[in-house]
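User: Hey, my collaborator sent me this sequence without any context and asked if I could get a structure. I don't really work with proteins. Can you help?
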Amino acid sequence: SGKTIVSILAARAAIAEGYQVAVMAPTEILAEQHFKNFRTFLGSDASKVGLLTASLRDKEKKWLRLCLKEGRIPLVVGTHALLSESVGFKRLGLVVIDEQHRFGVMQRKALRAKACDEGQPHVLVMTATPIPRTLAMTVYGELDVSVIDELPPGRQPIQTKVLRESKRQQLYRSLRRLMERGEQVFIIYPLVEETEKTDLKAATEMAQHLQDDIFPDFQVGLLHGRMSSDEKEDVMRTFKNGETHLLVSTTVVEVGIDIPNATCMVIEHPERFGLSQLHQLRGRIGRGEKESYCLLMASGRQTEESKQRLAVMTATQDGFEIAEEDLKIRGPGEFLGTRQSGLPDLRFANLVRDVPILAEARQAAFRLIEEDPALQEHQAFFAIIKQRWQEKLALADVG
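Assistant: No problem. I've predicted the 3D structure and written it out in structure-token form, which is a compact way to encode the shape of the chain:
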């Protein structure tokens, strides 16, 4: 939707003022993609962009860390490797965290802390996974939130349909027609390998079946999280170059893969995925100007909840609407699970039911801080806050 361009413009502004920029992404594939994009858009300054990932050779890491510490490289893109104690900066002024929901609060805090004696750096956190607006009021209450809610020029809405197993041969015929036209296809599976305990189709076995029995005249690739970084890079390079026509993958492609020629995604066992994850996966296609299709291959056994989720996916592409529906389906108790474990439990309020009073409470809190920033006239209130929340107050502005 344009988040990368926003981060590049912010980085250029920071570098122009003499500051360094750190961009952190959750996977090596995404970090490498950002690295290439930043180099492309920075033009003559491309040589000043560094890439730091775990797969770099020790000699390269040592040289890059030295350059960052001395300020010779103004911009570095990396993975969790940026959090290492051995990574330091001369003048870190901007931190960009992509797919911020994939990092813990303490990890985000650790990167910000590398600003040394310069004070707090500016922070831009980005995500393609919208959370419900009601929840955003509490999670991002202290942040300035910007929303990109339009498709870039030329892109078309993605057609999303639910298919049954009885339509599989018809599906394969449709995929063949697409690939004969030169377009590319993703097929997503929830598992890497089949186990005795489940009858779910798995990526490795199905990739072999598709190559040998269904599409022997096309090139089928396989991508999953157990591969080495070099293997993943090779698979993605051949797919991006058009040498691979159909890519079988697990959710390792959930974030950041940009293949404009990929116009179709088949998701096997979609009932096994959450709404936000399905929305993220669908975002890997429809990135060019051709019409694109997301086909959800549902199994015979579905719960009412899974039927609701698939119905939402076919009804809308609005990420915020999807997130709101996810909250309604799962309920606030389940939504506030391990991935959102930093959120406070609400003793009385319900995030679905009590939107108006939550908004009113938020406005009252901001008004109070504006009138009495140090809470000098509200000492009793301040004492209760310190007693209850002191350990977490330091994390409040991490984002």
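In plain terms: Confidence is low (pLDDT under 50) at residues 334-343. You can pass these tokens on to your collaborator as they are.
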